Amino acid sequence: MELSLRCLGSEEPQTPGHTSFLGGKPKLPADEPLPTCRRCGSVQTFFFQVAFPSGHDWAGQTLAVFQCTGCFDPENSTPIISRKLFPQLSTDYQEPGADIPEGVLEAVQLACRFPVFPTDQGVVRDDYVVKVAFVPLGFDRLADGKATAKSKVGGEPGWIWTDMAPGWYLGRPLTFLMQWQRGHLFKTVPGAPLPAIAVDPDFPNNPVELDYYELFHSYQLYFFGNDAGGSHHVMMVTQWT
Questions:
Q1: 113: phi > 0 → left, psi -120 to 50 → alpha, else beta; which?
Q2: Which of 71, 86, 89, 109 maximizes the CB count within 10 A of its CB?
Q3: Report field, pTM of the whole predicted structure over 0.90
């Protein structure tokens, strides 16, 4: 199963019936805490979520994507698995195809979170303050399964550089879930705070005026996962050239 994923561009308001969308209020289980940044403690910004359709390996499950926009660490701006964070690695950075040590996928999500939950358990979270404008997402048949610039779910990753698929985690392979196309700018709602990256610490009174957020520098994003041990585990891989 392989489908393209596209923004519908609709002006319709968010309703409880929407399950795949960007911005607005996330739909999470009622007892799921809103993700907070482990660097600065602020509630992370909700960017998008995808309810995997019938035919997908994770059909009936939803993947949500959060990232902190209130702080910025240039050395850890994406959840890179490095020896600096995990001294047990044999190389400076996790090699493509290599198996991942236990606990690393959850521990590396310092300023981001990728919660996975049954789609039918998601409820609109009114306790979240909206920052990104709501846009519904839709699925289409993919005319060219090898197209690399598209957002899509299922099939094989459309690498724009070289194959960087991960190995196994907790004794099971990490399989491809979806990808999000590079270059997307997430339009903010009026009054949303500027992202930390827009403020130069040397000139805090002269921020760059932006009306959008970038998700992981607008890199192309590839999501892999498994359900080892009865829990869903997600790894994100980025490419930019």
A1: beta
A2: 109
A3: yes
